[in-house]
Amino acid sequence: MILTLFLVLLLVAAILGWRRRRRAASTLVVFAVAWLFFAGCGPLTAFLLGNLQSGFAPDVAGWGQKNAIILLGAGTVRTGAGGVEPSLYADGRILRTAELYRACKATGADCKVEVSGGDAMRTGLAEADTYAITLGRLGVPRGDMMLEARSMNTFQNAQNSQPLLKAYGADKVVLVSSAIHLKRAVLYFAHFGIRAEPVRGDYVAARYDWLPGTENLFFADFALHEYVGVWRYHVYNALGWNVPRVPEENVTTQTHS
User: Fold this and answer.
1) Residue 194 falls inside a structural domain
2) Are the beta carbons of 37 and 212 closer than 8 angstroms?
3) Which residues form the signal peptide (predicted)?
4) DSSP string of 85-118, one letter each residue
């Protein structure tokens, strides 16, 4: 998105220059270069990431009697040997979920892990099924997992999680994802009446440098995707394009320690 906008601005500047509107063309070129450098060198990326990731902790405030820990998918990859594994971006979420499960069980409460994610990457195995294998290796029993293997995006994660949580009757819901993704995820889950405590599985930071770096550009793109997702949600709500909101009391009765 960063590079796309940069190229679009240069294209518009070229058209303006061809039409002899040199001052406007020069202004656009300066803006395009500044946009690329501020994102690639760190300042813009740090600002975008900071607003998205602030306020999300790596643990929970307390546990209830019946706890549901929701792990949101972050993709899968097909290995050279033909197997399917969690993507690099899912590792932190999976590890955090396993840690939370152990902490929950240590209190003597009832604890379930809901793994939400379909086969969005078209690898032949859903994220839920793939992550369940890794969670099992980390000590989470299959009997304490609820697999939701249909969702192709975050909105569907929330929509398809609702009936599972309602059937389980959780009085505490914890939502695990990347810090950069949690603001949008919490918004979507609230739309379906799910008041979840967000917990970050990972946290990313911009790297300040004198020259634009691909890592900063990647994180800036990721952040813009999240902002667009939040904006689109509110626009769709205003236009009546989203499914109706679900009252919170119809899904869970949340308690807090």
Assistant:
1) yes
2) yes
3) none
4) EE-GGGHHHHHHHHHHHHHHHTTT-EEEEEEE--
Is pLDDT at 253 greater than 60 in this prediction?
no
Is 45 contained in some domain? Answer: yes
Beta-strand relationship, 197-200 and 76-78: unpaired
**Same domain? 11 vs 131:** no
Q: Strand 172-177 and strand 145-148: pairing? A: unpaired
Spatial CA neighbour of 196 closest among 223, 167, 231, 171: 171
Q: Which domain holds residue 102?
A: 56-205
pTM (2 decimals)?
0.90
d(CA 97, CA 103): 10
> pLDDT tens digits for 145-178?
999 999 999 999 999 999 999 999 999 999 999 9
Decide: 159 and 243 in contact? Cβ < 8 Å.
Answer: yes
Q: Which of 121-125, 128-132, 244-248 has the lowest mean pLDDT?
A: 244-248
Based on the structure, what is the number of domains in the chain?
2
Q: Is residue 146 part of a domain?
A: yes
Smallest Cα–Cα separation from 172: which of 85, 61, 43? Answer: 61
163 and 65 part of one domain? yes
For residues 174 and 255, what is the distance between their CA atoms, to the nearest angstrom? Answer: 12
Name the residue with higher pLDDT: 220 or 250.
220
- Residue 86: both structure tokens together: 């969690």
In this structure, what is the dihedral angle of CA atoms 107, 108, 109, 114, given to the nearest 10 degrees? 80
| Predicted confidence (pLDDT) per residue in 39-56, tens digit | 999 999 999 999 999 999
